[in-house]
Amino acid sequence: MLNAQERAQVAQVWDLIAGHEAPFGAELLLRLFTVYPSTKTYFKHLGVFPDEVHLLSHGKRLLEAVGVAVLHMDNLRWALSPLADLHAHVLRVDPSNFPLLIQCFQVVLASHLQGEYTVEMQAAWDKFLTGVAVVLTEKYR
């Protein structure tokens, strides 16, 4: 999936955001809900105006899952299988939401990392996150 240079770029970006999963994840979710309001249907428990505590909590879980994927780039299917089962069989999340999430995540990364987030890093992260989305949607078949 990723060549050695792309893997290094994904790891380099993750090193910049590791430890800040909650605020990055909360901003990602807030951006997702704002730009694509239909995605909020899966988060009715957050209310009309999600409070910061809930956004930080779920955002942290979301980015912790990304961290697991970063650590297991060689075996995403194994690493993300429980998460894929949850989203496909229990939560029944529309898989068309994953590309929207990826898009919002890229914007959050670019806005925070600015000059440190090169075009090459963006391309590597796009490829990586697309691979994550593919694994998460495989259980829908």
From TrEMBL:
Residues 1-141 form the Globin domain. GO terms for molecular function: haptoglobin binding; heme binding; metal ion binding; organic acid binding; oxygen binding; oxygen carrier activity; peroxidase activity. Coiled coil: none annotated. GO terms for biological process: hydrogen peroxide catabolic process. The keyword DNA-binding does not apply. Keywords: Heme, Iron, Metal-binding, Oxygen transport, Transport. SUPFAM superfamilies: Globin-like (SSF46458). One of its GO terms (cellular component) is hemoglobin complex. It comes from the Eukaryota. Belongs to the globin family. This is Hemoglobin subunit mu.
